[in-house]
Amino acid sequence: MSAPIHRLTVEDLVETVESVVASETDQIANMANIAALLFEALPDINWAGFYLFKDDQLVLGPFQGRLACTRIPLGKGVCGTVAQQKTTLVVPDVHAFPGHIACDAASASEIVVPILHDGNLIGVLDIDSPVKNRFDAEDQAMIEKIVSAFEKTLTD
């Protein structure tokens, strides 16, 4: 019997994501599998998923976790700010973040990474935790590598 997925090391998780997305060209399928892998593998998280940039806003994409906000305007909340600035944000306490959108009151910290293709915003990868200060520089590097692996599958 194989080891449970939650025992994957950071390197194993990145390699697993790279392997899963390498042979699949469908963006939605890849996002769904990445969200599932992250949700199962990362401790102390309560939401992992994607928002896609459509019609000048973020629209809910594949995710794992509780019910989520469906649409987020650019510049609003953590996800909207990341989409507008096109830069990763690690938020140790979401309740202290100006304009935080509370999709799940249990969330206490968050990391959001932009997804870009040829410099254009595709969407964001959002991971929430019920634990304050859950995400650190190592988590940021890992999630950015995962997003990079996903970005390599995007085509025009």
TrEMBL record:
Q: Which residues form the GAF domain?
A: 12-155
Q: Which SUPFAM superfamilies match?
A: GAF domain-like
Any Pfam family hit: GAF_2
Q: Which InterPro entries match?
A: FRMsr_CS, GAF, GAF-like_dom_sf, Phosphatase_reg/MetRdx
Quick one: a GO cellular component term? cytosol
Q: Which residues form a coiled coil?
A: none
Question: From the UniProt record, which GO molecular function terms apply?
Answer: L-methionine-(R)-S-oxide reductase activity
Gene3D superfamilies given for it?
3.30.450.40
Highest taxon listed in the record's lineage: Bacteria
Family membership noted in the UniProt record: Belongs to the free Met sulfoxide reductase family.
Please state what the protein is called: Diguanylate cyclase
